[in-house]
Amino acid sequence: MLEKRFIEQDTVQNKVKFVDAPDTDDMSVDLSVRDYVVRVTNDIEDASDGGTITINLPNVVDATGRIYSILATAIANDGDGDAGDVVVTSQGDDSNFEGDYTLTAAGDRVVLYSDGFSWHALAETTT
């Protein structure tokens, strides 16, 4: 019984996805339906040389009933929508998507829910 608990705990920990910044190029990351919690670091020295990280949400139908939390843990940029930002986007398979969510500072986050038809922002904190 005790061993089973450790296995279940490891399974939960595997649902956290960590994304680190590229040095100079843009980067695109496709989330699986099991990537419930995403922590993104885009803290390169010179943000003007760094790339934007695009986080692509999973298929809206496959993610039905699931909640995804995406947090920018560190971002080194000037917040002007240029290089260094983290952009959260859908695959275009949903209806009425409110648009991309752009995280421009450490601590910015978005929590999204899929009802099988569309993505809904449950919470959004940006600076």
Key descriptive features of the protein:
about 130 residues, mainly beta, five-stranded mixed beta sheet, four-stranded mixed beta sheet, 9 strands, disordered N terminus
Descriptive account of the structure:
The protein is mainly β and about 130 residues long. It has one domain: Jelly Rolls (Sandwich), CATH 2.60.120. Helices cover about 10% and strands about 40% of the residues. It starts with a helix and ends with a strand.
Q: Estimate the global geometry from the Cα principal axes.
A: globular
Termini, distance in Å?
46 Å
CATH topology: Jelly Rolls
Number of spatially distinct domains? 1
**Major beta sheet, strand line-up:** 1-3-5-8-9
Major beta sheet, specifics?
Answer: 5 strands, mixed
Q: Which strand-content bin applies to the residues?
A: 35-45%
What count of helical segments does DSSP give?
Answer: 1
What is the typical, i.e. mean, pLDDT? Answer: 76
SS class: mainly beta
Name of the CATH first level? Mainly Beta
β-strand number: 9
Concise description?
The protein is mainly beta and 127 residues long.
Topology, please?
Elements: H1 2-13, E1 16-20, E2 27-30, E3 37-42, E4 53-56, E5 67-75, E6 86-89, E7 101-103, E8 109-114, E9 119-125
Parallel strand pairs: 1-3, 2-4, 3-5, 4-6
Antiparallel strand pairs: 5-8, 6-7, 8-9
